[in-house]
Amino acid sequence: MVHRLGELNASLWRSDGTPGGTVRLTPSELTVSTLEPIRALGGRVYFAAADTDHGEELWTSDGTPEGTRLLADLEPGAAGSQPRSLTVFEDRLYFSADVGESGRELWASDGTPEGTVLVEDVDPRPGIGSSPQLLTEHAGRLFFFATDEEHGQELWSTDGTAASTTLAADLAPGPAGFSVSHLVSAGSHLFFSGGPSDLSQQGLWVSDGTAAGTRLLTDVLIQPDVRPIQAPAVLSGRLFFASIGDQVLWTSDGTEEGTMPLGTAGGMQICEPESYQLFAGRLVFSAEGALYESDGTQTGTAKILDLAAPSDASFFEVVPAGSRLLFRKWDRLTGSELWALEAE
Question: Structure pTM?
Answer without folding.
Answer: 0.93
